Amino acid sequence: MSVPPHLAGEPVRAGIPEHGRIPRYYAVKTQLLALVQELGEGAVLPSERELAERFEVSRVTFRQAVSELVLEGKLVRRQGAGTFVAPPKLVQPLALVSYTEGMRAQGVRPGRYLITREHLPADRRLAADLRIEPGDPVIHIERVLLADEERVGLESTYLSARRFPELLDVFDPETSLYACLRDELGVVLVHADERLETVLATPREALLIGTNPATPMLLVHRVSRDGAGEPVERVRALYRGDRFSFVTQLSGPGATG
Description:
Layout: H1 11-14, H2 24-39, H3 48-55, H4 59-71, E1 75-78, E2 82-85, E3 90-93, H5 99-104, E4 110-121, H6 124-130, E5 137-147, E6 150-160, H7 167-170, H8 177-185, E7 191-200, H9 203-209, E8 216-225, E9 231-240, E10 244-247
Parallel strand pairs: 3-10
Antiparallel strand pairs: 1-2, 4-5, 5-6, 6-9, 7-8, 8-9
Helix pairs in contact: 2-4, 3-4
């Protein structure tokens, strides 16, 4: 099976093992990528039988290639309708920018719906992150993140209930928490420590986000601070790996400005 010439220097090279033989499913995958680029966003793929015959492979091999592209967010399956070319991934900056601002900058309508709003006693780790005492009350807000009405993530935020006793009275959970902190409570986030890793969602998380438990997720841990360096929030946010990528700006030691 030949590799499309315009893809020869792209993903297929990374897929060639040391012995030099390209796995058959991977060669199919590169051909599917070429077809995806040709068809464009939202187009439906020809039938499995047609494409398996075109690529001269078994349906099992073809399905493996398609499954990888679905997990990577290049294709999307719709029950009873077929397999479609997926839209481009959403891009969220690794910066102190709210989810609302990040989505609107891409022309996407952000949304959230509330799952949990409660008071909890802080365990030792949470207390250390928020610089409070273990057992002190914290506010826990858990929300599903939406992009143009599509469920794309799940966010849990923890704040000191003693520092923000009025928060739940003034905060609309369908809107930006950062805007509420700034406009209603006069708190501006200035610094944050953030860590990003890949995980699989728990069964509960997958159900809330509406995704396959096998879909890779991007997990963000963040502790945000105000101008005085005091912790304001601790966040645990899950984003669908097939729908999101993250971007940041880096500077070398010689950079100016």
